[in-house]
Structure formats: C-alpha cells, structure tokens
Amino acid sequence: MSKPILEMKGITKRFPGVLALGDVDLAVGEGEVIALAGENGAGKSTLMKILGGVYQPDEGTIVINSKVTAIRSVGDAGANGIGFVHQELNVLDNLTAAENVYLGREPRKIGFIVDRAKMNADAEVFLKRLGLDIPGRTRLSELSIAQQQLVEIAKALSLNARMLIMDEPTSSLTLTETERLLGVIKELRDQGVSIIYISHRLGEIKEIADRVVVLRDGRNAGVLERDEINHEAIVKLMVGRDIKHTDRPQNATDVSDTVKVHGLRTRRYPNSPISFEIRKGEILGFAGLVGAGRSDAAQAIFGVDVPLSGTVEMDGKAISIASARDAIRNGIFLVPEDRRNSGLIVDLSIRENITLPSLDRYSSGGLVSRADETKKAEEMSERLRVKAPSVESKASTLSGGNQQKVVLAKWLSLEPKLLIFDEPTRGIDVGAKSEIYQLMRELAASGVAILMISSDMEEVLGESDRIAVMHEGTITGILDRAEANEEAVMRLAVGH
Amino acid sequence: MRKELGTFVLLVVLCIVLAILNPSFVSGVNLQNLTRLIGIYGIFSIGLGLVVITGGIDLSVGSVFALLGVLLSIFLVEWQLPAAAAVLLVVAITTSLGVFNGFLITKVKIQPFIVTLCGLLFYRGLARFVANDETKGFGAASGFETLQSMATGSLLGIPTPFIILVVISVIAWLFLHRSIFGRYLFAVGRNETAARYSGINANLVVASAYVICSFLTAIAGILLAFYTNSISPSSHGNFYELYGIAAAVLGGCSLRGGEGSIIGILIGTALLQVLQNLVNLLGIPSSLNFAVMGAVILIGVVADQLLRQRQAAKVAS
Q1: Same structural domain for residues A266 and A192?
Q2: Complex confidence, ipTM
Q3: Taking the model in full, what pTM does it have?
Q4: CB-based contact (8 Å) between B122 and chain A?
Q5: What is the domain extent for residue A47?
Q6: A482 CA to chain B: closest CA distance, Å?
Q7: Do A367 and B178 touch (CB under 8 A)?
Q8: Domain boundary residue among A210, A239, A268?
Q9: What are the pLDDT digits (tens) for A413-433?
C-alpha cells in the first residue's frame, strides 16, 4: 500500500441496544481503490456516515494525511477532501449540469450576479475529465442516470475531493454504463484520487479493487489483497461460511404447457412487437441493457401499462388484460423493480401489504376479518422467513431483503401461474439473495412460469433456464442454458 | 391514535375550564344547541375527512351549501314539491357534483385543489343567480314540518342532527376502518402507484371519496338550511369547507393523505364547536371568533409537531 491518506482506527459506534461497529479499522492509500463489502447491516453505511460527519464515533480515531482529525459535520468531511457519491442521486434535475456542480458556490460578478460563462467553462473542465463531453448548460433532465452520476462525481472533484466514497454507484446503470464508470474510476485512481467503493456486485469489485475490506456484524471480517480477490473468498468472508455456487440442472419443463405472449407492443416501443413463451416450471431470464424495453414488456403483461396490442395466452386460452386487476385475476403477478414505491406501501404493516390484493378472501359482507388476515400474514411471513418483530411492523422498518420477501408473500398467498420478477435482488444482501433464488427455483419446480428481468449478469447466467435478450424493444435472441455465456448475452444485448 | 388522544385531552380540558368559568355551558339549552351544531358539522366533516385521506381536498362544500339551500327552498316553497321528492332531488343533484369532481380529478387528472376551487366560485355564483341574490327561507315550513324537525327537533332530548351524526359515524367507521374499501382508501392515499400494482382500481377509490363527500354535504346542507331557516346566497355556508378540513386535520388526518380516523374527525369537530361556544359564553368579542379558532388550531399543531420531533430525537439518539 502506498502512503496512507486515511486511517480509521478502532472505530466503535453504539446505537441503543446494538453495537453497530466494534473496533473497526480501515486504511486507504493514495490512489487506491478499496472495495468495502459486507451484507446489509454489516456496518458499511455506518462507517461511511462516520467518515462523512453524519455520525460521531463513540471510540476510535480518524487520521487524515497523518493528522488526527475530527469530522464533526458534513462540511468538515468536504473540507478534508472527502466526497460522496450516493446510491440515490443527490442532484436536481431541473437545473443545468454546471448549476449542479456549483450549487451553493456559484462564481459571481459584481457580488450577486451568477457568472454563467465562467461557471459553465469551469464545470466543463471537470466533466471532460470524467469523459462527459457536454456543454455545462445542459439540463440534467436531458441526461441519463449514468451521466447524472458523473455530474455528481464532477461536483465532488470540484470540491477538491482527494477521496471519493461511492455507495452502490452501478445499481441503476446498464452494463455498458457500468463498464464506462469503472473506466472513470480507474482513471481517477491513476490521477491519485482514492476511492472507497461499496457494491454488492462482486464482479465489479474483482475488476477494480486494489484491496477488499470485508465487514461482518459490525466488525472487520478480513482483508483480501489484489491477487487474493475472488468470488468465493469474498462471499466466505461476508457470510462467515462457505456458499457453494453450484451448477444446478435445467428444470424439467413441460414444453406443451406454456404461457405465450404474442405481438406485444408497448407504448415505449410501438413499432417492435415481441413474442415469446415461458414454459411452466422454467425460469426465463430477460437480459439486456437498461432501457431495452424489458420492464415495459413486464408492465404491459401485468396490465399497469396497457399494451397497444398483443395477446397473452395461458393454458391455451387468450386472456385480456386491461388492468393489473385482470392480470391478478389470471394469476399473473409482478414483483416490480422499484420495491419501495411500487411493490409495497411502506407505511402500512406487513399484514396489510400481504393481504392488499386479496382482501376479499379475508372478508365477508365487505368487512375484513383481522384475525383471518393476521393468520395468513403470519403463515406467509414464516414460510418466507421474513425477519420482523411481528406482522404489524411497518414495511418501512424492514431491510431490503425482507421487504422483497413481503412483496413475494403478497403474491404467493394467491396462486401464481406466471410470476414476473423485475430486478429481484437489487440492493439485497448476499444471504437474502440466495434465499430468494432458492424460492424462485422451488416455485418453478412447483409448476409456476417465471420471468426474471435482471441486469446482473451473474444472476441471469446463474438462475435462468433460458435467457431471452432484448435490445431496443426487440428480442434479439433466446439462449438455452448450454449456449449461454457472458459474451453471447452481451453480443445480443448490444444488438449484434 | 396518539394524535386523536391529544386533541381529545384538549377538548376535555376546554370543556372543564369553560364549565368552571361559565356554568351555563352545562345548561340544557346550551348543550342541546352545541350537540345540534356538532351533528351538522360532523356529517360533512366526515365526508371531507375521507377526501383528505385520499390526499385530496374539497373546497367547494360551503358554496354547495348555498346552492342546495337555495334549490331546496325553491323546490319546497315555490314549486310546492312533496318533501321527499325535494330532498331526493337535492341529494341527487349534490351527489352528482361529487361524481363530476371525481371524474375531473381521476380521469382528466386535474388537481383536486383546482377542481374544487373552481367549484367554490362557480356554485356560489350559481346560487346567487338562481336566487336572484335574494335571501331564501322556509317560512313556517307548512307542509314539510317533519322534514324541518329533522334539523330543529329532538328525540328524547337529543337533537336529531346529532342522532343522524351518530348513525352516519357508525356506518362511516365500519366503512373506513373495517371494510375492504376503507383499506383501499388508506392504501391509495399513502401510495397510489403501489396500490395500482396490487390491483386496486385507484381511480374508482378516489372518485368514490368525492361522491361520498358530496352525499354527506347534501345531508348536512339540508340540515343546515333548516337550522338557519334563511339562506342568503352570498354568505350562506361561507368557509364551511375550512371548518371541515380543520376538524379532519385536528383529528389526525394528514393533508398528504393516508392517515386519519372517524373518531378523530368527530373529536376535531367537537373541539371547533366548543371553541366557538367559548367565544360566545366568555363574552369575547365575536369579531375575534376566527382569531381564537386559528390560534388554538395553530397551537395544537405546533405542540404536536414539537412532541413528534422530541420523540424522533429520542429514538435516534
């Protein structure tokens, strides 16, 4: 390791009733990329919030450039050259790129007039350094998520950040955008910027990290040097046990019994009708870049975004879907990508979320029986191993993995025939991930047809029985398990 | 529940203080009049509360009172329609205004504030035009005494509007807190997208709230018309929608939607009426009426917010 620019030593942080961090060490060298890994709740966020001045540690010291430094506020963090790029973008899309970069410290003329020319020119220097060749006056709303993220990085750089903390920066990027961002990170590293990179995507960590620091239950679980980094080793440290990435046999499927989608046209791609079929008992992976039209197709089949034309055939009968209600009545369910806004009503309890689409089952004469509801909700939470004090807990208090289980519980309490998962494990920790995969397989084995949209290559290749790849609204190919590999999928995803 | 409890404690304290300062507060006549008013105000406040729970608002209630009051007088006094027919007609017309609101809000996607603000202006103007800007009334109510007694009479010493409110409250409570539709109302108010993703017909749920609100507005409006027995189209019902919204908010409904309870709305309504009564009984100049009400509501909301922040700080530390 080069000369350390940051050392956190013996950091301890207690919250009422929990030890969030116990004696955690973290050192970052100049121009080094450190990956911080760990399951959700392992203490990554708390550690980074201490570095960012949001929390104060109970014990331990922070040494920056060989000086013991107290970071008492978010402003202190900035003054010490620490910049954040958050998982949820902190940019204002009604302003321009340059206005975002210089928000709150706009260059001025005669004291109070914003010097736009200077602001745009200055911002463009930083944007160009990140490979984003756009005028500073471009409105953020015209940029893609990936580009907006680069604007946020530019903002950090313009504050003379010597160290960037990136919290799951690729979670909403496409594969090519991810590649580009990883390239940017490497370039920043070569320019001497240190980076702490938090991600659940082990492939990315392998590609860019100089070292991996793994936390487990609020403590250091271990460190892997560059040449020790591999999938199994990281996962082993994260979960504290071996998880074998086993190759499973292709599910036995009945080819005669299928869900057929024919000539489906969505509002986003009105000129590209798509047709495909999902066999009962199989997991059909839907790969492609973000924006390829996969979610649009899913929403059309589920009826929340009514298709322009097309038919869905089930058990040999065409069914008409004009609303989510129709889809639900026919056993077609969607586990949406945006869990917190579409999948759940986070202010309601687990019970209320689980029974929402099927309230008539727990009621007579229009009045709901709370006892029946509770019984079902408890049964489902137990079956899916939802970790919560009770089914009356609000969904907002649960971790991502447990929230996803509640969404699933909602649908499994009915009888699914076709279950569509849109990015089923995004932002979910490794342990819960494997539980969800396990569940998907059990469902498939019980004869449910499963459509799984995923931008996580490992997930698509590891979990699908067949893989349909989309590019700009059309299905460019369907791969069997035997012919599927990363290159083949990528080739189809970019339209070759 | 905690918020309702706070408002309830405030209500009880006010009643005790008022009873001590002026014993005529607990006199039969005063209590009768107070509960009569609570009955009338409570009925439309429940309607407004349901709308607020969907995250919406209905500003047109007061103007609708003027319009339906004028129409009722014309139907009964000038056209000499049978009482039942006049009531049915007024209820049907008023309820159809709710259907119209619901349509504009859910199908044309205009913000509830705008739709009902236009209603506030339009129905007021219409009422004045229909009445030729003349005050309408029911005189001695000859031919429809029974109808009038619904507003002005009593049963076993309890004012009939209060009895009607109790019946409506029980139905509304079952509807909101125990029925499927009530659950949908909360779900849509909290998060319309997720509700749609659970197969709920969100538009129908929201529109229904406006229809129910208008229906309850019709009931309350008929009682109010007979209670005042004189409908001056330019001022009858002025600001009444705000009483309803204030009652709902005091009772724990959030203007962001998804929160609230029938019992809370009732407590809020009672609190507002007791405040009004307080101004009268303590000889506070009636010009200060609104100022007292505004101040008490503000103090209540600020106190609630401060308590909430203190609690949040306790949880975080």
Answers
A1: no
A2: 0.85
A3: 0.78
A4: no
A5: 4-239
A6: 35
A7: yes
A8: A239
A9: 898 999 999 999 887 877 888
